[in-house]
Amino acid sequence: MAPANDTTLRIEDAVNDFCPWSGKPIVPEALTLYNGAVVGFCDAACRDKFARAVAAFEDALRARRVANAGLHQ
Length: 73
Prior knowledge:
Layout: E1 31-34, E2 37-40, H1 44-69
Organism: Methylorubrum populi (strain ATCC BAA-705 / NCIMB 13946 / BJ001)
Protein name: Glutathione S-transferase
């Protein structure tokens, strides 16, 4: 069993078998952790595209929460 602080992502733990962007099979070199789950991609470019999309949505959600709360930064 791996140590508790081991952060190596394993393809066996991925919640998907196919890349959500391309539809191709996922590969061990293109895994990421999202909301506590391992998500796989067909290559690093698709993984990085996902990271940028997530960041953009999170930024938009933060901005909406600030606007709805009547706060201005």
